[in-house]
Structure formats: structure tokens, C-alpha cells
Amino acid sequence: METFDELDAVAGNKGETLTKTPIAPIANETESNSGQGKIAAEHLNQAEYPISSGIAVVINNINFDDKLNFTDRIGSDLDASSLFQRFMELGFDSDLLNDATKNEMETKFNEIKGDKESLKITDCLIVVLLTHGTEDSVYMTDGVVKIKNVMEHFNATNCPELHLKPKVFILQACRGSDIGGGVERKVIRNRDPNQADASASYVEYDEEFGETIRIPNEADFLAVYSTSTGYGSFRNTETGSPFVRHLSDELREMKKGEDFYKVLTRVNKKVGMGYKPKHKSEGVITQMPCFISHLTKDLVFKQKV
């Protein structure tokens, strides 16, 4: 029996009230790995984030409280297990939370922030959210949480131990109820197979690091979305979501020393241009992933030999 791809959308719940997740109070003084309120200039000058270890948390929500009136996210277990496996292979200390409530998510995040000795040797944090969502929010099993508030748990103010360290949030969830559209065109082979893509220049600014610098709370975050703002995100009950499937494949196949940007760009292309949803709607149906980067260095994961 042919199965249709489902949308992780919650368009029918217009009466749901958004609630803000409490955030820890702002501290007057912060500490970094190099001492209280101090950062080594050499660390700022590095072109890449030095990653030898990391923490990955996969939150996989399938069943929701009856009051939310959501359908079960069947097929999400495949997404969760594949990403969990990829992060383990990359040397991350990984954890999987199934059907997490808002309190259980908070407890896990506070547990991570509370283990300051572990955070000192943590080079990267990855949080995966597989759930229902809206344009600016995601759902735990018992209610909605603003994406902004989820990320703020680990910003420069609330988690100083992760200063200048990459914090990656991967979200497989709808960001609206619209269905992505597009056009179809025939592909014509290039006459010159040796024609190279134009290369972009990189300009590095010369800064004076001898004085105090400010680290924005938004610095060193990378938000990876399965779909564009306002649109639905597909998931197949038998094969999981195309976004996670391609992301998992690209993580497994990425070259040594390859920047994560390139991995995500290939995922954008494969899902956006190669994926053809099986949907009841007529016309050209598409899904276009995207990522928003506040990273300040290249992000290269350490791969096991």
C-alpha cells in the first residue's frame, strides 16, 4: 500500500497559547575556558572551531497529549536512530529523549549546563528536535515552546562555558501550513565538462584583540531547519523524513576536513531539487530546507579513522 508523506504541521490548533520558557537570570560575571572573563587572542584567531568532543541530544516526539489534538509522528524513530548513530560515530556523547515534556527538556538542558567540568572539555553542542512545529515554535508532548527560548538556554549569558563554541540546533518540524511549490525544467548537459564554478573571495578583518570584546548572545549558533519559513515539512511513516535521511547520509559520507556548511548545502540541494513528495495536492510540490548561521569560524567535525 502506497503511503503519503505527512506534514509535521499544527495548522488546526489556532487556539493554542504560546508560553515562554523561563530563562536563567543574567549573571554579572562570566567565566571562560581561559579564565574568568578572559579569552585568549589565539582562540579568537583560529579559522576553525577545535572540535575533538561534543554533546548531542536528540529529542524525538511521536506521541502527544490528547489535548493538543495532534496525529502521531509515525516514522520519526527512523530519523532519531539514524542521527543518534551518526553523532556517536563522530565521537559525540549522545543522548536520546523520546516523547519529552517541556519539563523533561528543561531538566536535560539544566543537567548539561550544571555539569561544568564536562562542559569545559566539550567543544560542540548539538540539539536535534524531531517534532510538530509552527513558524517560530516547536512542540513538546505537553505544549509549545518558542525556538528562541530553547536556544537561549545555551547562549553566552546563560551558558558561559560554551563561549566561542558551536551550538547546532537541527529541527525537523513544520514552520507553517503552506505547501512548497516550484517549477519543472529539463536539465541540459553543459557543453564544456571542465567549466569550473566561480570561486568566492574571503575577506578577513584585522581586529585589535588587546582590549575587551563583546560576545553576542547569538554568536556561534547554527540553526538548521528542514523547511523554509511558513512551509510544511514532510515525513514518511515508513522511511522517515527526507531531510533527516539526506542529512544522515551526508554526515556519513562527508570528506575528512570538510566544512559542515558544504554538507548542509548538499542536503538543501538533494531535498529541495531531488525530493518529490507523494502528496494528494496537485502541481509541483517541494520542500526547501535552510540553515541560519551565526557561526564565527569554520565548523569541521572530527571523523574517526
What do you see in this structure?
The protein has 305 residues and is an alpha/beta fold. It contains seven helices and twelve strands. The strands form four sheets. A six-stranded mixed beta sheet has the order 5-4-6-9-10-12, covered by helices on one side. Helix 2 (76-89) packs parallel to helix 6 and helix 6 packs antiparallel against helix 7. The longest helix has 15 residues, at 260-274. It starts with 5 loop residues before the first strand and ends in a 12-residue tail after the last strand.
Fold blueprint:
Elements: E1 6-7, E2 31-32, E3 35-36, H1 41-45, E4 54-60, H2 76-89, E5 92-98, H3 102-114, H4 116-120, E6 125-130, E7 137-140, E8 143-146, H5 147-152, E9 167-172, E10 221-225, E11 234-235, H6 242-253, H7 260-274, E12 290-293
Parallel strand pairs: 4-5, 4-6, 6-9, 9-10
Antiparallel strand pairs: 1-11, 2-3, 7-8, 10-12
